């Protein structure tokens, strides 16, 4: 068999270059997914007995000391996103705290982030019930009543 060594060598180099270029392009495409990966935190704000949603509540989400704030929508829903990488990272297995306030109502719940719940997004769903805050006087009366009942029962 006779063949031109220069042509064969040029074709071989061209094939290697095409494969290398294809690998570089694939690496870039997959790295975009890693760079832009997000964690979605979502839920609803309810009243104390979960019979109605609370719109316009101030919501604060704390994940690893990184805080995102938002306001609940008309149906009580809220959502925030964190990056999975970098300085504000919040990803699979992390524990987060969601606190919400509206007027004299306050609620706080804890949740755990689940890996790749849909697509490349990590997800945590935390629903927060808001309960009325006790004023100082009512709180003090409650504590004194509990102590009084304790001693009354112990007396016998």
Strand and helix map with partners:
Layout: H1 5-35, E1 38-47, E2 58-63, E3 66-71, E4 77-83, E5 95-102, E6 105-112, E7 114-118, E8 121-125, E9 128-132, H2 136-155
Parallel strand pairs: 1-8, 1-9
Antiparallel strand pairs: 1-4, 2-3, 2-5, 5-6, 6-9, 7-8
How does this structure look, described?
The chain has a domain at 36-137: Immunoglobulin-like. The chain is 33% helix and 38% strand. The protein contains two helices and nine strands. The radius of gyration is 28 Å and the shape is elongated. The model has no long low-confidence stretch (mean pLDDT 73).
| Helix-strand category | alpha+beta
Q: How much strand?
A: 35-45%
State the end-to-end distance. Answer: 112 Å
CATH topology of the domain at 36-137: Immunoglobulin-like
Please name the defining characteristics of this protein.
156 residues; alpha+beta; Immunoglobulin-like; nine-stranded mixed sheet; 9 strands
In brief:
The chain is α+β, with helices and mostly antiparallel strands and 156 residues long.
């Amino acid at each position: 068999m006779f063949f031109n060594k220069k042509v064969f060598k040029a074709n071989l180099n061209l094939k290697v270059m095409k494969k290398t270029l294809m690998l570089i392009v694939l690496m870039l495409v997959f790295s975009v997914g890693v760079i832009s990966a997000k964690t979605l935190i979502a839920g609803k704000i309810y009243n104390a007995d979960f019979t109605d949603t609370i719109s316009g509540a101030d919501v604060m989400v704390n994940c690893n000391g990184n805080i995102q704030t938002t306001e609940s929508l008309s149906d009580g829903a809220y959502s925030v996103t964190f990056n999975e990488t970098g300085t504000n990272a919040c990803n699979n297995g992390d524990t987060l705290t969601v606190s919400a306030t509206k007027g004299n109502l306050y609620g706080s719940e804890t949740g755990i982030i689940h890996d790749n719940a849909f697509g490349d997004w990590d997800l945590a769903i935390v629903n927060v019930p808001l309960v009325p805050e006790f004023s100082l006087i009512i709180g003090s009366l409650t504590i004194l009543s509990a102590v009084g009942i304790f001693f009354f029962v112990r007396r016998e």
